[in-house]
Amino acid sequence: MAPRRTAQVAITALLLLGCAYVLSPFFAAILFAGTVVITSWPLYARLHAYLRGRDGLAAITMTLLLTALLLVPMIGLAASLTDAVMSLVELIRAAIEASDGRPPAWLKEIPLVGGDIDAYVRKLTRSHDEVRKLGLQAVEPARKFALGLGAMLGQGLLQISLVLFIVFFIYRDGARISAQLETAAARLGGELGRQLLELAGNTVKAVMIGIVGTAAAQALVAFIGFVIAGVPGALLLAAGTFFLSLVPVGPPLLWGGAAFWLYQQGDSGWAIFMVLWGALAVSSVDNFLKPFLISRTASLPILLIALGAFGGVLAFGFIGLFLGPTFLALGQALFAAWTAITPAAHEADSTEGLA
């Protein structure tokens, strides 16, 4: 390779590494913003046409709509959840301070296992003063956990705000970015490159539809259960179920808490109903609806979807929900293209066999 060519390659590589290093703190936000834009692009295209092709106005309008749908409910949910946790901690502290160290009377009334638990706790609590001291010591870590939860929610809100900020510019320059990506894919891989780019977009869209659709279905089913059981704030709890459905083991925190509240109110039957409804109706929606929606939209095997989603989360965090299935889909497409038997190759194989 000529020295000039070598210098060009080295400079290009250093430039790419520098760009990657500068943008590395924002990779997750950029990828998630791209996912949101890809999924909502048909709606943006209609809005863009309605506003007579004004890119900036259409982009800011779409961004404000997403802010109303994502950021505002999350702020209300974060505030309510933090207040609820702090109130629970203070309630536990007051109960411990007023307790004589013996287990509460309602513990023995738990069906099936209440008597055994009560006997075990009484065995452990022979020294009432020591147990009371340990209980008060455990309250402080719980309070710190509640404060940490609030900080985590605040950080999540900041990340969502950053995503919405990036989304505006992707919407505004989306047509140009799309054309550049198509040109780059064609230069790198020809027709196969274009197919892979289209496949990546379809897979991301399918995963988003599967995740959001499943979360909406779980929220609806949970709302019905909350209303039937007479749990107050059913609409707010359903909104919380929608957002917590995006993380593993999220919804049980809400319907389990609702069941505990019902039991504390003396409604043991409704508490049992809430547990059964949550386990059999709410949580089971995720097991069949998400793979069904993704496989129907992206035409991917369910095995690849499951492995891609779980492996992606372990490797990349939340954004891995989208990256994992996309990578596996692209790998499957490349393998299929590499192992495809063209008519010319098939004819050559037949000729060699006859010879």
From TrEMBL:
Write down the membrane topology.
Multi-pass membrane protein
Q: Which domain of life is it from?
A: Bacteria
Q: Which residues cross the membrane?
A: 12-38, 58-81, 145-171, 206-228, 235-263, 269-289, 301-323
- Annotated Gene Ontology cellular component terms: plasma membrane
Organism encoding this protein: Zoogloea ramigera
Instruction: Give the protein family.
Output: Belongs to the autoinducer-2 exporter (AI-2E) (TC 2.A.86) family.
Q: Which UniProt keywords apply?
A: Cell membrane, Membrane, Transmembrane, Transmembrane helix, Transport
Q: Check the record and name the InterPro entries matching this protein.
A: AI-2E-like (IPR002549)
Query: Know the name of this protein?
Result: AI-2E family transporter
Kindly give the Pfam families that the UniProt entry links to this protein.
AI-2E_transport
Q: Which PROSITE patterns match?
A: PROKAR_LIPOPROTEIN (PS51257)
Q: Where in the cell is it found?
A: Cell membrane
